[in-house]
Every structure is written in structure tokens, then in C-alpha cells.
Amino acid sequence: MSGSAEVLERLMATVEKRVAQLPDGSYTTKLVRGGVEAIGAKIREEAEEVVEAAAESDEAGRAHLVHEVADLLFHTMVMMAHRGIDWSDVAAELARREGVSGLEEKRRRGGVQ
């Protein structure tokens, strides 16, 4: 997992740099210039593709799912960088929820009766 975490950290650093510098010809720049609406549209699109790929049962479907999850994660990272959110912010929120039932967490936020 540590190798995986390193890849995510490197990618996030690249995304953050592109968000800060907005280099011409960068896909990240194009997304950021479109704001939350453009980035959000890509996140919604990729989330739908994750669900579709998850329904594919063979090995090709598994590979497709991995590809789509990577796309979803990348676009989520662009949104995080655009809004100034770091992995440590997300990790802190996950730590806060650790050991708490998902249903209990929703109840605390008023989402489940």
C-alpha cells in the first residue's frame, strides 16, 4: 500500500502544481478554468462509468473498472486541488469516522431515521 500511497501523493502534487500554474495545453487547466461545474460534470460522468464497469463480470470488466476508478479518482483530485483540499484533510475526516457505523454517521448528519 505504501507504494500506492506514493503514487497518489505524486499525482496530487502534479495536479496541485497545474492548478496553481494553469499551464497552457493542460487538461487540468481546462477543467479548472471551467470551475466547479466543469470538474463536477466530469466527476459525475466518471462515477456513472464506474458503476457501469462494475456490472461487467469478466476479467476485462475488472480491468475496465480499475481504469474508471482511476479516472474518477483523478477528477476528484482536480476538484480537491481546485478547492484547496489536501489528502490530510480527507484522512482526518476518515479518521473521525473510523469505528462509526455508516448508518450511525448518516443519523448524526440527519440523513437516516
Summary of the model, kept short:
Helix content is 79%, strand content 0%. It contains 6 helices and no strands.
Q: Please, could you describe this protein's structure?
A:
By secondary structure, this protein is mainly alpha-helical. The protein has a single domain (2-82), classed as Orthogonal Bundle (Helix Hairpins), CATH 1.10.287.1080. Helix content is 79%, strand content 0%. It is built from six helices and no strands. It has helices spanning 2-21, 27-33, 35-54, 59-82, 87-97, 102-108. The mean pLDDT is 92.
Characteristic terms for this protein:
0% strand, globular, single chain, mainly alpha, 113 residues, Helix Hairpins
CATH superfamily: MazG-like
Structural class: mainly alpha
**How many beta-strand elements?**
0
From the alpha carbons, calculate the radius of gyration and give it in angstroms. 16 Å
Q: What is the chains' assembly state? A: single chain
Q: How much is the average pLDDT? A: 92
The structural domain count equals 1
What name does CATH use for the topology?
Answer: Helix Hairpins
Helix content: over 70%
Number of helices: 6
